[in-house]
Amino acid sequence: MTDHPDPQPPAHGRVHLVGAGPGAADLLTLRALRLLQQADAVVYDRLVGPEILELVPAHAEKVFVGKMRDRHVLSQAEINRLLIALARTGKRVVRLKGGDPFIFGRGGEELEALALAGIPFEVVPGVTAALGCAAHAGVPLTHRDHAQTLVFVTGHTKDGEVELDWPTLVRPGQTIVVYMGARAVASLCARLIGHGLDPATPAALIENGTCQHQRTIAGTLATLPELVPDHHLLGPALIIIGQVVGLRARLAWLTELAEGPALAASEAE
Ligand SMILES: C[S@@+](CC[C@H](N)C(=O)[O-])C[C@H]1O[C@@H](n2cnc3c(N)ncnc32)[C@H](O)[C@@H]1O
Question: Residues 88-104: pLDDT tens digits?
Fold first, then answer.
């Protein structure tokens, strides 16, 4: 016995930072599935659907930590503390995030906190939304004839404005994928046109990609803002811009459920 025992018990637990993929449960990796089945606790976000949560064993603790724009159930700092606390009780913790944890998922921030606390961790990649949406919408993100460069950007706004490196984005021969850009679609398209991208450049918004209610609204940089009335968007949505979007006319293979006037308008194009 020492007079001053260490207030923290030794860390026996481990955190697995796992990508859940874009939505469809069968796009989980086998490794993700195995870890979910062995988990003592699963800490998950809003983008992780019920089909995937059904794979978590009944005895495992499930903790929803939210993350909806402007409405977080727990702050990032609280999530970090929760992961550390769960691991310190010796649990196998799965931190489950939509898509891939390192693509606009704050996975790096969570790992930094774990590293600082001395908690062992592992990372399991997931199918990011760009790949899932593109595949299910019939849009090859690269193509020898149309796109040699692929960029992923966030359309998250600061004071209502999207701030991106516009001169880089309007270079020819590239595909731009915008995460979290649905609310800013009008300003995004206007800024790209203003910086010299052809208004006739094909562009599409894909909502609920890979899920049962996927819908694709396709147009051009000039027309997309009118085709996407934002009150009709209920699920997560991604925007793809570039000549490759035009290939969808021949390559779209999925029959999407017709939903609402926005879809009708876009499909009429
Ligand atoms: C906070 S980011 C998380 C991205 C995630 N880590 C990934 O790799 O896909 C959330 C954004 O991802 C996109 N997203 C995620 N799942 C999607 C889906 N099934 N369909 C369309 N967009 C999706 C949307 O742009 C959404 O606003």
Answer: 999 999 999 999 999 99
